Amino acid sequence: MVNSGHVQRRSLKSFILNVTQLIMVCGPALLLLTAPVANARTPGPKRLPRSYTDPNIPLTPASPSSSSSPSNIDTARTSGPAGRFDYCAMAAEESNANNGIVPYQAAKGCYEMFEFDPNVRDQTVQSVRANLESFYVFYDIAKSPPLMENSDLQPVDLTGSLISVGNTTFRDDYSFHAALAQQISQLQDPHTSYKSMCYQQFLFIQPLSTYGVYEEGRSQVKVATVLNKLDPRLTTSLVDCEVTHIDGQPAFDVVTKFAETKSYSKDRGVRLNKAFSYLAHDRTGSPYDRYALGTFAQRTKVPSNVTIEYKIDCTGKRSRSTSTSTPEEKPIQTTVALAWSALDATMIPYDDAPSYHRQFCSQNSIQTVKKFVLDSASADDFGAGRTDLHNGRKKSKELYRGSYASFHMLSDGITAVFRLGTESPNKQENYKAGFYQNIDNGFAAMDAAGAKRLIIDLQNNTGGIICWGRYVLQTLFPNTVDSPYIYSLRASPLAQALAKATFLYDQDSNSPYEGLVDPITGEEVSDDSWMNPGDNLKGRNGTFSKKITDRFCGAVDDIKGAADDALFEAEDILILTNGYCGSTCAVLALQLHERYGVRTVAVGGHHGQSMAFTSFPGGAVQANNTLWVQRVQKVFNSMPIHAKTPQLETLVPKPLPANGQLAFTFRQVMSASDEGKVSEYMRIPSEFRMDYTSARFRMPSVLWEDVREEVWGVSDSPEPAEDEFESAESTAQEEMVEEGEEPTGEDQGEGEVLGGEEDDELERTAEEADREDLEWLQRFEAPSKVRSK
């Protein structure tokens, strides 16, 4: 690892200790919200009146600690290096004084302090081009993608786009790296991305997040959470009120337009779901879930405006309330401009622009950041919740919960829910055994409870280790074949030369092509005949390798069995997603659907439009640029001089000149139902579609019950006895947990072609054959503080 320092400022220790609790009341239910930080700069609480419009709201709260800051920090640059005001010094001062909170202008100004260097541009573009042109497996199809329903995927000429960036002079260094990242994001392949770690050190968040529903015959945007420690004018009375307008435009249209610019999926509906807040399974094994802000309210890219203006109408919420209204509870309409705040995610101290650049921007600087996890108990606290939830139906009974999955029984007593939140490690000890045990214990609990049908809830699962997905598949269908996941690779001239050198010059330990298996014989390949001379794929330009698969998954082999060992028949299983089931999750879901005919349900998106139930199945991903380039160069250098032609010399990628990360899909997953197609560009819509409602968003049990009724109808089975369901008042406990470092790959072992997710610091083994590159500031959660009930 380039730099694995874990030095932290003392103020950041107090950041964890200064956790506050919020209680949010939503109708009759006790809802729990996120409260990330205490903002020492904000004035005292100020309740919004019933009708409120104030165009003169300060763009950022006043800070008593910033007496030395200029009165207009957008334009004052009168001191510091080269006579410029040092915004990085200001950011460091504000972070230290305010528990990691940095004003928008200070974070933005710090990013924009560094001058554009054409040499950095040229070398960066050359490195990115060399990697993508030789190894990106979708390089050809990106130029002429197939038409896909409910998709706006456009052709992307990677070489032409990168040449254009390489010929452009930018205002500053940040603008260059942002433009390069934007060009690659047009692929709409979340596995393929570029980011400069210099400009990932602040996380920009809004004090209000939203969710989308279809109610009363129209699409609506509602308030999901308020963080009144960032803006004390906000109160929990606004939660579940409708956001009618954002910056003067219809709110749903604004979020839809924002989602169109993102690369999370090739499906419009899935991108919309991702922009909104969602309730996520807690990966620490806690009985609570947590609300994620969604990408509209939480961004790593600098927002274009200092504030977002929201028009909020609580009339509908008040009119639906059955409780006696007090004067303060009368219908309100509110317009308020909310400032962006930046959370300092740096892992080591910086004092000014030179130290910031040295530690986070140079080629050998640190590649880790802190990650802030918004932990909150949910309305559907499965460990201790009310019995009745919605329209007289009963709350699901939790059978078992672990770090990676939870298992529930619905009110009919025969339909179970297997909620799989991730296939990515959570840094706990024995993480592999913990995952397998989580699955084994959950299936044993469902069997003991007499489950006859199963809903597999894969909402917001962004994948992880491929063998973990295989383990779930094998558990559901014990007679699964040895190699269900089949890949192929791009057979470019450089790739063919490296594959040949791997075996000819004994470079297995260095090569990106070591450990591959022939899916027919089950034996590891021992020569380059799988790569040379290369095969053609129907409808594709260029040549590709023969089909290969991954190395042996030991744990999977231990649970192989006969078909009648399965706990559920295929027709008694449903897959439930909001479309954002990616990578390993997508490959698992597609295998279940294509091989075994498991039916699918998608929720959310755009009302009345079909939606894919998976996204970015892609394949194995290279996400550690430094190790990848080192391996390529080692294998190339093993070749004799006469084999290193000038043409090949120009194709070998060089390291990035600045602190950046390039990830790309290295191997493509072949379809299980059509051998000539790749899963990434096959859009398979869900068989059933449902909309989110407020109840379905807030309470997973309501959604699961609705899914059961939609597909199987109302069950005639007797409901469990009342005392089988725990009944207790939920407790409102919220905290912003500072999770420590967010690793970025320098110590990921042989991770570029192996496994897990990009933000994983664990040593990789050969069985981990997938890598994620998503939400690097939100992903890979370390064990958070266990809350008492």
From TrEMBL:
Compositional bias per record (Basic and acidic residues), positions renumbered to this chain: 763-777
Region feature (Disordered): 42-77, 713-777
Ranges of compositional bias, category Acidic residues: 735-762
PANTHER family from the UniProt entry: PEPTIDASE S41 FAMILY PROTEIN, RHODANESE DOMAIN-CONTAINING PROTEIN
UniProt-recorded name of the protein: Tail specific protease domain-containing protein
Species of the source: Linnemannia gamsii
Phylogenetic classification of the source organism: Eukaryota, Fungi, Fungi incertae sedis, Mucoromycota, Mortierellomycotina
